[in-house]
Every structure is written in C-alpha cells, then in structure tokens.
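quick one, 213 residues, struct below
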Amino acid sequence: MAVVRVRQHVNPLSQKYQQPVLPPAWAQIFAQPDRPLFLDIGCARGSFILQMAAAKSDWNFLGLEIREPLVNRANDSAQEQGLTNLHYVFCNANNSLRPLLASLPTGVLRWVAVQFPDPWFKKRHQKRRVVQSDVVQAVADFLGPDGEVFLQSDVQEVLLEMGDRFQEESAFVRLPGTPDQTLNPFPVMTEREVLTESQGEPVYRMIFQRRQD
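---
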C-alpha cells in the first residue's frame, strides 16, 4: 500500500479550502441523529472522539478536520469498529461550520471542543488560526442552552486568544478555573495531551458554558 504523506500544517486561507462543504444526510450517517452531539473541531487523526464514541453510545460524535487523508483514515477506523454514532468531515471549519450545524437536527449540539489547534506563531499567520469570530458566532447560534465549549492548548498564548474570542461573545460565560489548573472533564485524552503531560509540560484549558436565553 502506498504511503500517503500528510502535511502537518495546512493554510485554511488557500484557495482550495474556500468552498464550504456540502452537509451530509445525517440520517444516513448516524443511527439516531437526534441524540446529543459532541463536536471536535480540528480533530486530527480522530482518536480522541473514536474512544469517546466507543465509551458513550448514547451520544453522537462529529470530527472536523482540514487534512483529507486523516479524515478518510478516521472514517475507515470508525467503520471497522462498527460505530454508528461517529463521523468525520473533511472541511475548513472557518467557512463550513455554520452550514454543517444548520443542517443538524435542532438543539442536538451539546459539547464543542477545540484541542491543540495549529498555533501559527508568526504574527502575519495568526489569521489562519481556527478560532475566529465566525466560528465563535456559529457555536453561539447552535449550541444548546447550558451546552459547553472546551478549549485546550500547550501554548498559553493560543489558549488565551481563543478564550478572549469566546469571552467577547455575550452568549458565553466562562466557568471558574485558571488556565493551568482547569482539568480535562473527559475520560479520554488527545494524543498531543498525553505527549505534553508525559514530558512534564503544562496544558492550558478553559471551559465556557452557553447562557440560557
């Protein structure tokens, strides 16, 4: 089998990523599409929600990733394990998140995670970061009341910037806890999280809750 080279970083502003994805027919994707939904934005290889989906069969899990080979492999893994509550979509979240969420059954979105996104350290590249105002607004519009957003990164600057964008949106309230002391609320860790903590490096986290209208 030929080895497919996967780029570590993809520029979401490139022309090839400017066409929003066409939402799938969710009734053909999930066995029960009206279950509560966990959305992982920038899921990479998808191992985090693969494990989550296996552990929580009463929830649906959706991973978004801009690197198509990773999405294809992740969907193959989900099918091999017979998981009918898990799906991955190849897309640019900055322009595809809203149409995807709008196509889902009303009120199903309950958790959103953005974990270890590409940091894009150079100032001129920071507009490529995934948590932009359009993403925050789409989450605000479709996340159910008391739904939660989990942010984490091993780069404090990136975590604080993501947090600032969510705090600027009045629909969200940040839950108590400093970035370096907030715990992962899930029974599963991402690959990057495991590696970072195994090296004795800090992971910074924030959790936001959707206000009740």
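Confidence is low (pLDDT under 50) at residues 1-5.
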